[in-house]
Amino acid sequence: MEIRWLEDFIALARTRHFSRAADEQNVTQPTFSRRIKLLEEEMRVTLVDRNTLPLTLTPAGEIFLQSAEQITRQIREAKARCQAIKEQDQSTVRLVTTQSLLLGYFRDVFEPLCQKLELNIEVNMQASSWPSSMFIDAINGNECDVMLCFWHPAMDFFSGLDPEHVEFILLDKELLIPCVAADNAGQPRHQLPGTRQKPLPYIAYDDGAFLAPVVSEHLKRQPEMAQLQVQTSDLHAASIKALVKEGFGIGWLPERLVTDSLQFGSLVKAGDTSWHIPLEIRLYRDKRNPHPKANQFWQRLQATISRQE
């Protein structure tokens, strides 16, 4: 059964005339009559009494009319809702980002900027638990429109992005800071670089984390080797922060994520500025992305950032 057969039948019930109903449905009368006949064959019952003038519906036709009107109304409403969802999807830019940026830079800086510019963004919350490789796959596979992330030369997984088609906007700078819980006197419980006899307990990043290669590379370049003993590792800076605050060891954390903790003394810096690691906060996109609003979003944001420089 086709939906247009139901619409034909409703038109016939309203006009009580085959030719007028055919005109309403923009078909020839023979075609219209054939579709009504097909509907009756499908229902295995006569719906229209053709022996009266004007035409009337049979008792079965009266019952069927109620169902036909209900079905077509539900289809129109469903179609309207689906169209609204489609329009919303087309006007919303899909963003993925790491948990630490979601809790800090995105919430405090990027989201308010987008709201000011009336740029609609939808955050994929599942991405906050992704390892770094899945972010690269999301950009390459058009599973997102933009990617908000940290960048550092040591992050070799960015080689998975095609520089010919993938571009970025430099949004801001960040620092990774070695942090540790304070003792009762407000001093760091552990101080870099530590000693071989007493290595510092270290809360590391998992190998799949964005920041894992950054810390590793920086430690290799230090003139004085840090004496660290890994206690555990985690994918997320927020989880590492929680363990560090509880006194389980030292950890490198984004400055925005620990600003309040440093201010109120629940965390202190575990070393001087030579142990700080500079990062960039970037927004990436694939220029081949077919999303109709992605390019407009990118151009407006790029223009705004350029004016702020």
UniProtKB/TrEMBL annotation:
Keywords: DNA-binding, Transcription, Transcription regulation. Transmembrane segments: none annotated. One of its GO terms (molecular function) is transcription cis-regulatory region binding. InterPro entries: LysR_HTH_N (IPR000847), LysR_subst-bd (IPR005119), WH-like_DNA-bd_sf (IPR036388), WH_DNA-bd_sf (IPR036390). Residues 1-58 form the HTH lysR-type domain. Belongs to the LysR transcriptional regulatory family. This is LysR family transcriptional regulator. It comes from Maribrevibacterium harenarium.
